[in-house]
Amino acid sequence: xxxxxxxxxxxxxxxxxxxxxxxxxxxxxxxxxxxxxxxxxxxxxxxxxxxxxxxxxxxxxxxxxxxxxxxxxxxxxxxxxxxxxxxxxxxxxxxxxxxxxxxxxxxxxxxxxxxxxxxxxxxxxxxxxxxxxxxxxxxxxxxxxxxxxxxxxxxxxxxxxxxxxxxxxxxxxxxxxxxxxxxxxxxxxxxxxxxxxxxxxxxxxxxxxxxxxxxxxxxxxxxxxxxxxxxxxxxxxxxxxxxxxxxxxxxxxxxxxxxxxxxxxxxxxxxxxxxxxxxxxxxxxxxxxxxxxxxxxxxxxxxxxxxxxxxxxxxxxxxxxxxxxxxxxxxxxxxxxxxxxxxxxxxxxxxxxxxxxxxxxxxxxxxxxxxxxxxxxxxxxxxxxxxxxxxxxxxxxxxxxxxxxxxxxxxxxxxxxxxxxxxxxxxxxxxxxxxxxxxxxxxxxxxxxxxxxxxxxxxxxxxxxxxxxxxxxxxxxxxxxxxxxxxxxxxxxxxxxxxxxxxxxxxxxxxxxxxxxxxxxxxxxxxxxxxxxxxxxxxxxxxxxxxxxxxxxxxxxxxxxxxxxxxxxxxxxxxxxxxxxxxxxxxxxxxxxxxxxxxxxxxxxxxxxxxxxxxxxxxxxxxxxxxxxxxxxxxxxxxxxxxxxxxxxxxxxxxxxxxxxxxxxxxxxxxxxxxxxxxxxxxxxxxxxxxxxxxxxxxxxxxxxxxxxxxxxxxxxxxxxxxxxxxxxxxxxxxxxxxxxxxxxxxxxxxxxxxxxxxxxx
Length: 762
Fold this sequence. Notes:
Elements: E1 4-5, E2 8-14, E3 28-31, E4 33-34, E5 46-55, E6 64-66, E7 70-71, E8 73-78, E9 81-86, E10 104-106, E11 114-123, E12 130-131, E13 136-138, H1 140-174, H2 180-198, H3 203-207, H4 213-238, H5 245-256, H6 266-284, H7 288-296, H8 302-323, H9 330-402, H10 408-439, E14 447-450, H11 451-463, E15 471-477, E16 484-487, H12 489-505, E17 510-520, E18 525-534, H13 568-578, E19 582-588, E20 592-602, H14 629-632, E21 637-640, H15 644-656, E22 662-664, H16 667-677, E23 681-685, H17 693-702, E24 711-716, H18 721-730, E25 734-737, H19 742-753
Parallel strand pairs: 15-17, 21-22, 21-23, 23-24, 24-25
Antiparallel strand pairs: 1-13, 2-3, 2-5, 4-12, 5-11, 6-10, 6-13, 7-12, 8-9, 8-11, 14-16, 17-18, 18-20, 19-20
């Protein structure tokens, strides 16, 4: 009718290969299960004969027997004739050669309608002995069909787990930041590998030759540990919080214990493996803590995840029961793996969908934030341009007016105008600097800086502005500085002058000391450590927290000497951080302050040579101007600007320097005058009607009818770095920002006249 599992009580003859039926007492053991006697007492490792009398009907066709998992070596005999053996049975450890193999064999024809089945078993290489899974009796086709069904089930589970592993590994290659994929792939892959040794058909045992039994047992233990660790890593990746760390660490410690047993003999190792399985199961229950906590906190998918993990706990329980030969249901464990894999795949898919939604939302928020930043930057750039244009007229005409005959009262009024204009310009510059730093549009421009001269220039600038009888400003070099340092000179100067300016501002009398130390580092680098220490009024302790906050003024109640934007220290801190350094402050209210900052910089290899600083070349100063400059450099200058006030200011400035300037108020006229007048130098306004300065410059550079290419200098109220790069990329040679100052104009003419007016972008 079909296959019959030979489950139930079998006779057992302990330590006896050839029992006498009439002399041996009747003892029974349950198959499948650990071999025991009638009282339920377990037999130790050893050897025994199990026998079963099977009654069959008359005219029964040929029957076949399929053995179950029998540890560790066995022989099957029917009516005294050996029909199959796996390994070599023996009466001690040395004589036994263990081997597990599931095989279907034909039984001899039944005599007197009964089959006397005898199984001789020796078990010295494993701590659990007996028949672990059922023996089946049936027809050849029925046995084969049953075996093929078992193989199909294992192959189905194996293919499903490999597919899940491969799919999530591919997902990880695309989303490297989502490590749940790689850990889940590891769980599925190792579970599939374990199927070869713990599956219903025991693939690996059927095809390995004798002598590999111990290796497979240890491989089985190692694969369990790897599966265990992968599962814990997977859970940790999903529920990764500090309060759960002890749970994960406990599991990692328990998992790693098995590796210490690997050098032991196989019997001791198998005993340790059994204890390790039970200990692992109890420790794994701790994994429920973060998952249940996630359910309580209503984390997405936490209930579904809890269900699948509980199913996994049942899976491990079945593995342990099978390992101890209590139940013959190893194939159910494999389905448990499959259920876990599929449920977790759904859970991960749900998380991915949620992540996609979050990423889309974050992307939208990022775009909105960037749009706001771009709008703010654009707005500030436009406002800067619009403010600087009239400021050019105010400050320019103020400079011109200061050179006329004025009464003392008029000079006082004019100085107030100059002071207010300078402070308004300072505010515009500070706001733009802070905006660029906060929006990430700030870029450093590294260049070799002549360090000793740079430091002395900064100190001398403030010395010249203060009364030496009341305030002493000094520079202290702790050790010999390099002659040159690779850094952003403009930003370095901004940092140092901001700190010195504050020190001078809040120190009526006493001393200001700038101390500089150079600490050599590896790879040609040096750490620059600078402190600016003063004996001024200091900073109240309760105000230290807002010291580097924008628009915060610690001593806003003081006189106009301390006027400022409240942005200086905020910008200074951000600039130092952009240089990769840090800043700190120590202060005692009423006794002074000490600002300390440091950053690392590259030093050219010859920077410590004395001769490297002897020939630094001449450079024109930017703090004075020459009324006879035109006599020294008789060049033709064209001013292209659409604003009549700016034209007037530029014209008056050039007259002060001895030049008579050509004027053009739009792009077309500028092109015509370059062709007809062939000027040497063109100060080009970037924003002009009909054709802007960028377009005019490109036309000049690309024109074949202009025989003499002039030097073109951008003249714009837009001070953003992108604007400068845009001008230089268009073919301009230099860049000046409004408001235009007389000494800046003097400097620029000298700079390019000394170069024989050869345009750099010709």
